[in-house]
Amino acid sequence: MNRNRRTTHSTESGRDVQMSFDQRLQANARERYRTHSVNSAFNNLRQLIPTEPRNRKLSKIETLRLAKSYISHLIAVLVTGNGQRPCVDTIGHQRSEGLSEQPDEPPARPPICTFCVTFDKS
DNA sequence: TAGGCCATCTGGTCCT
DNA sequence: AGGACCAGATGGCCTA
Fold first, then answer.
1. Which of A59, A80, A105, A61 is nearest to A94 (CA)?
2. CA angle A52, A79, A59 (to 5 degrees)
3. In angstroms, how far is B1 C1' from A45 CA?
4. Is the pLDDT of residue A42 over 50?
5. A84 CA, C2 C1': separation in Å?
6. Closest nucleotide (CA of A27 to C1')?
7. Which residue is nearest to nucleotide B9 (CA to C1')?
8. Can you tell me the distance from the alpha carbon of A42 to that of A35, in angstroms, rounded to the nearest whole number?
9. Taking 70 as the threshold, does the pLDDT of residue A122 lie above it?
10. What is the distance in angstroms measured between the alpha-carbon CA of A83 and the sugar C1' of C4?
11. A55-112 pLDDT, tens per residue?
12. pLDDT-derived band of residue A52, with 50, 70 and 90 as boundaries?
């Protein structure tokens, strides 16, 4: 690669600023490091979410959605004191909020929580 | 082979 | 000015 290459980097005032190739490489390295730290946070979060089967690797989007669902499940456990299937007893968390969280997707799912089902099997 | 997921690069914007 | 954060583009890997 040509280390003398320059890339433009415009500011909010619209003025183009020359960015040296070395600066670009440094920015790339920082971004890589930042992405790795985000991934390590995702890995930490994954370890806290029970899956079926056990040790199934969750994607990032699955991790976020299931984390939200798991928090709701734990809240239901606290509210009802029912450690088995608490979510069927609560109003606010009556359906699975697991993998399909599309905004425009109709809620066509039986009123059972993902984690109630998971813990039933175990 | 198509689709999903991911890492990396890149440029724009915001913040200190 | 420099760094952090973010989103889009791109290409590679894996699985059904």
1. A80
2. 30
3. 34
4. yes
5. 53
6. C3
7. A28
8. 10
9. no
10. 42
11. 788 999 999 999 999 999 999 999 988 777 777 666 555 444 444 445 444 444 445 6
12. confident
Give the predicted TM-score (pTM) of the model. 0.73
* Residue with tokens 């809620």, as numbered in its chain: A107
Closest CA to A76 of A67, A66, A85: A85
Q: Which pLDDT does position A74 carry in this prediction?
A: 92
CA A26 / C1′ B6 distance in Å: 22
- List Cα–Cα distances, A49 to A16, A56, A71, A73, in angstroms: 46, 10, 10, 11
Q: Is the CB of A26 under 7 A from strand C?
A: yes
Protein contacts of strand B with Cβ less than 7 Å away? A 7-12, 19, 24, 27-29, 31-32, 35-36, 39, 59-62
Residue type, A93: H
Give the total residue count for chain A. 122
Distance CA A40, CA A121 (A): 29
